[in-house]
Design goal:
Layout (H helix, E strand, L loop, with lengths): L5 H14 L9 E4 L3 H14 L4 E4 L1 H13 L5 H14 L3 H13 L18 H23 L4 H15 L1
Parallel strand pairs: 1-2
Helix pairs in contact: 1-2, 4-6, 4-7, 6-7
């Protein structure tokens, strides 16, 4: 689609139903995310064309929206800072990711993988990153000191970890 609005969304849904030979009277639910143009597409166009249907907001999207609020909750500021800083430490640094995985193997971790990236467009990625960091944060100081890097991201993490230890 060259534009994304209520009209183009409704057209895409109708085209999809038509290309799959589905009758508009057989549609029982139209599941979309919570975007206003999706709600408007159903309310102003699709509801009249699909008399047996109801609009359902995708539960995954609703849960993600609720989850997004936690990132900005004041008591989670340290977690948010850690996730952002660790993303900077590993983002576009494949050699460091490999060294991290080797470090985990040497520490005899069963599940050895690089930290997941928190990406705004991927649902639940922030929570996955927080969970990963919660499980591995006790190793970050040792690993980053071994890295012997003066990069700002590494310095920020070490400073954040030092502040946490003092609390």
């Amino acid at each position: 689609m060259d534009r994304c609005n209520h009209s183009t969304v409704a057209q895409a849904i109708i085209r999809s139903l038509h290309s799959n030979n589905l009758d508009l009277n057989d549609v029982w639910a139209v599941v979309t995310d919570n975007a206003s143009y999706c709600l408007k597409a159903y309310r102003e166009i699709l509801k009249g064309l699909m008399p047996n249907s109801v609009h359902v907001t995708c539960l995954c999207h609703v849960i993600n929206l609720v989850g997004e609020t936690w990132k900005h909750y004041r008591y989670f500021s340290d977690a948010a800072s850690l996730v952002a800083a660790m993303r900077s430490v590993f983002c576009r640094k494949p050699a460091r990711k490999r060294r991290w995985v080797s470090f985990l193997i040497n520490k005899e971790f069963v599940h050895t993988k690089a930290p997941p990236e928190s990406v705004g467009s991927r649902w639940n990625s922030w929570f996955e990153a927080v969970q990963y960091h919660a499980e591995h944060v006790h190793l970050y100081r040792e690993f980053l000191l071994e890295e012997n890097s003066s990069a700002q991201a590494v310095t920020n993490i070490l400073s954040l970890l030092e502040t946490e230890e003092k609390m």
